[in-house]
Amino acid sequence: MRFDVLTIFPALFSHYPREGVLGNALEKGLIEIHAVNIRDFTLDPHRTTDDRPYGGGEGMVMKPEPIINALESVERLERSTVVLLTPQGERFDQAMARELAGLEQIILVCGRYEGIDERVRALCIEREISIGDYVLSGGELAALVVIDAVSRLVPGVLGGERSTEEESFSDGLLEYPHYTRPREFRGLRVPEVLLSGDHARIRRWRRAESLKRTLKRRPDLLEKADLSPEDKVLLEQLRDQMQEST
Ligand code: 9D3
After folding, report:
1. Which of 86, 93, 128 best tests ligand 1's pocket when mutated (most atoms within 8 Å of CB)?
2. Would you kindly state where each structural domain of the chain is located, as residue ranges?
3. In the chain, N or C terminus with fewer CB closer than 10 Å?
4. Rounded mean pLDDT of 186-214?
5. Up-side HSE of residue 207: CA atoms within 13 Å toward CB?
6. Which atom of ligand 1 is nearest to 129's Cα?
7. Quick one: pLDDT at residue 170?
8. Is the beta carbon of 64 within 6 A of some atom in ligand 1?
9. How far apart are the two ends of the chain, measured CA to CA in Å?
């Protein structure tokens, strides 16, 4: 998977991806990240990337020429798409990450200021993505989020570690609680069942904890979750228990 990121802050893409899972993926050549400095594609002596909005108003708008020139400098692979990170985009989620992971190249355009000249959208942008309903200072952090989530789905990236199947959201539930040594920490003990060695019992306990957490914190996820008949019975019991305690 190849990511090309158009930004006025290319340095933001040098450190985060070099650590951890992404760092390993980069070293193995499973992913490539090319940060393209939009400022390098300005033609004026001041290297201007923004200008005042036609019609007036607050803030500045990113000029179209440097972005389009930067975009045209990027080598295009066969299966590629051009994405604009914007608060007006479609909400990014795991399903969208899976879809994007099927491509060979994702070109990510990061806006700053109030946004980009609308003609960049009209001419080049194939898809618009937002990572959620909060205000960021620009598209860069959102681009890193997309790069991280998509890279994890590239075959080979999650080598020895947990498979993608096992991860939260792949079956649509939140994860059960995790514990490691020591058995007792500041008076808090690891649940007995996890020390029992009874793997069937442990599996059932973890499933019940996942369902409990999801019901309590993210009931919206249960509608799309992958639930067995046993899960549904358990969920009904948990719902009844919640009713009793209120
Ligand atoms: C306070 C400025 N807002 C005026 C109504 C508009 C605005 C413009 C540019 C708000 C944020 C930004 C910069 N954000 C992004 O470019 C961005 C973003 C985000 O802010 N939240 C969630 N996902 C994304 S993707 C890109």
Report:
1. 86
2. 2-151, 184-245
3. C
4. 98
5. 18
6. 25
7. 62
8. no
9. 50
